[in-house]
Amino acid sequence: MSALSDGADVGALVPSLLGERRCFTAREAAAAAGVSLPRALRYWRALGYPPVGDATVDFTSSDVEMLRLMAGYVDEGIIDEPDSLRLTRMLSRAIAHLVRLQVEIVADQRLRHGTAGSLDPAAALAERIPEVQRVLGQLWRRQLDAALPGSDGAAENETESAAIGFADIVGFTELSRLRSDSALTRIVTRFEYRATEIISECGGQVVKMLGDEVLFLSENATVVADIATRLVSAFAADADIAGLRVGLAYGPVVRHLGDVFGTTVNLASRLTALAEPGSVLVAPEVADALDGHPGFGVRRMASRDIRGIGAVAPALLIRQRPGA
Q: Are 92 and 175 contained in the same domain?
C-alpha cells in the first residue's frame, strides 16, 4: 500500500522527493554556503521555504549549493541583492504554481480513470523530476534567447509602444457560484489553454493569466485585433462560458519583471469592462491603425469619460468576412 493511501505522514515522502538527506540546520547551511544567517533567511523566505527552528535539521547539500550560487550572482556584481530577491520570489511563485498544477492534473487524471488506489502519486511524480528539469532548462534557454538585448525582447523598465489586449470571461462571478470547484477548474484550464494557443498562433505574447482573464500584447495593432476576434469566436459557442469581452489599446508601456504597466494597459482594462459580451472595444489609436484594413471594420462610438483616463472615443471592432 502506498504512503498516501495507508495514512502515513505526507512529510515522510519529502526526503525521497528531494533525493538526498536533510543534514543541516539553518545556521549550518548558511555557514556551509559562506553566507550570513540573516542573508540566508532572506533568500529562503524569498524561495518560499517554511520557517524552521534553530535546531531543526531541514536543509540538504543542494540547498546549500543553491544558496551559494544565488549569493554569488550578487557578490560578483551581476545583479544587486534587492533585484535578486525579487526575481527569486517571482521564480518561486511560478514554480509553485506549476507544481500545484502538475499535482492537480495527476490527481484528476487518476480520479477520472478510476486508478486512485493503484498508483502512488508521489512515486509517479518523483520519477518525472529529471524530465521536468530538462524541460524547464530547455524552456529557460529558449526564453532567455528571446529576451536578451539584440533580440526581439525589450529591455526591462524601457518605455516602448505596444498594442495591449485584455480578454475576460463574461459572468465569471456567477459562474463561480453555480459550479463546483472541480468544474470551475476545468473551465478555467480550458480557457487558459485555448487563449494561450490562439495568442501564440497569431504571433502575440501572453503577459499573464489571471484565472478568468488574460493580458496579451504585440508590437502590431493588427495582431492584437486578430487575437481578439479569434478569442471571441473561439468561445462564442462554449457551453460553459457565456462568451468573452475584449479591450484593446495602443501606446507607451513600461516593461518590468515580466509584466507591463502604464496608461495604455489601464485603458485596455477599462475598455474590457465597458465592452458588451462577445464584443471587442478598441481605443482610438487601434481604430486608426485598422482603418481601411481589409480584414477589419471599426464602428466609431461617442466619446465617454473613462475612470482614471479621461475622455476617450472608443470603437467597436468587427471582423470582416472574406469578400465583404
A: no
Asked if 81 contacts 72 with a C-beta cutoff of 8 angstroms, the reply is no
The rounded Cα 145 to chain-centroid distance in angstroms is 19
Distances, alpha carbon 120 to alpha carbons 21, 116, 155, in Å:
21, 8, 45
Boundaries of domain holding 284:
159-319
Residue 154 inside a domain? The answer is no
What confidence tens digit (pLDDT) does each residue in 60-82 have?
Answer: 999 999 999 999 988 888 888 98
Residues with Cβ < 8 Å from 205, sequence gap 6 or more? 199, 216, 217, 218
pTM: 0.66
User: What are the E-state strand segments in the chain?
Assistant: 159-169, 205-209, 213-218, 244-256, 259-261, 280-282, 296-300, 304-306, 310-312, 315-319
* Boundary-marking domain end, from 147, 176, 204: 147
Q: Is residue 70 a part of any domain in this protein? A: yes
Cα 205 to Cα 77: distance, rounded to the nearest angstrom: 31
